[in-house]
From TrEMBL:
Pfam family, one: Lig_chan-Glu_bd
GO cellular component: plasma membrane
Membrane topology per record: Multi-pass membrane protein
Protein name: Ionotropic glutamate receptor L-glutamate and glycine-binding domain-containing protein
Primary localization: membrane
Ranges annotated as spanning the membrane: none
Keywords: Cell membrane, Glycoprotein, Ion channel, Ion transport, Ligand-gated ion channel, Membrane, Receptor, Transmembrane, Transmembrane helix, Transport
Localization in the cell: Cell membrane
Gene Ontology terms describing biological process: monoatomic ion transmembrane transport
InterPro entries assigned to the protein according to its UniProt record, in alphabetical order: Glu/Gly-bd, Insect_Ionotropic_Sensory_Rcpt
Domain Ionotropic glutamate receptor L-glutamate and glycine-binding: 130-191
């Protein structure tokens, strides 16, 4: 089975996996070890044709599941369809989702929960999560402050996880294609030295291939302000100096004394 075709696709595929033996299960488990993080959230329906303890109580986390995995499992000796996911690296969580009646008297499905997917995944059980913050989000004493800090602590409170603050990083990070490595916060994420990066990240196509991003909290843009010329015809081919504005209206007014200035909110 080759899942590389799906890695760069926008829509998640729906995979039907039929397990006929322990060997089949081991083969699929080995395959999941090489999947990219985005592929671990594919929608999967797994049907066991032979009864066994693995189907009802999988030991550890053999399928390398994550918190937002979408895996439905049907055992041959049970009418219950369960969903599998993982909070802790070495444990598989199993929740009863649907009762599937196969006899003529009770044909159809009975939903065993009335909560949506996102509502069922609202508790991380106090899991310790490492968070690395960009230095710009800290004051001169190194204490993390601001909207990003407030938002992260509120998320931790709502879905029940413990924040393990890591040493501050001076930059988000850049990718070196020669060494196929990144530095900064992105480097720590790539090397599994941290779990969440907090800072002024710019979403690029290259980064989206290697990292998962949350929805943007603040959107910034690059704007160019061109001073009105005293001449009737403005010479757009003339040399103009670019200045970066970071401190609001005062700096903008100062920069407007030049021919062309830029307000840059990107990193």
């Amino acid at each position: 089975m080759d899942l590389k075709y799906y890695h760069d696709k926008i829509n998640d595929p729906l995979l039907f996996i039929v397990i006929q033996s322990r060997r089949d299960f081991r083969l699929y488990a080995n395959l999941t070890r090489s999947l990219k993080p985005t592929a671990k959230t594919f929608r999967v329906i797994m049907i066991f044709e032979k009864a066994g303890s693995i189907c009802h109580d999988p030991p550890g986390n053999p399928l390398n599941l994550v918190f937002d995995s979408k895996v439905l499992v049907k055992c041959p000796d049970s009418e219950i369809i369960r969903e599998w996911y993982s909070v802790y690296p070495n444990k598989t969580e199993t929740d009863e989702l649907v009762r599937w009646y196969r006899n003529w008297e009770h044909r159809g499905n009975e939903y065993l929960t009335d909560t949506l997917f996102r509502d069922r995944r609202q508790d991380l059980g106090g899991l310790n999560i490492r968070v690395t913050v960009q230095k710009e989000n800290a004051d001169k004493d190194g204490k993390i402050r601001g909207m990003c800090y407030d938002l992260m602590t509120e998320i931790a409170r709502r879905i029940n996880f413990t924040i393990n603050w890591q040493p501050l990083e001076s930059k988000v990070g850049t990718y070196d294609p020669k060494t196929n490595t990144s530095d900064g916060i992105l480097g720590k994420l790539a090397s599994n030295k941290t779990d969440i990066g907090l800072g002024l990240f710019v979403l690029t196509a290259d980064r989206l291939k290697r990292f998962d991003f949350s929805m943007p909290l603040v959107e910034t843009k690059l704007s160019y302000f061109i001073r009105r010329s005293n001449n009737n015809v403005y010479d757009f081919m003339s040399y103009s100096r670019l200045n970066r504005v970071r401190r609001g209206a005062a700096d903008l007014h100062k920069c407007m004394s030049n021919n062309v200035s830029a307000v840059n909110g990107l990193r």
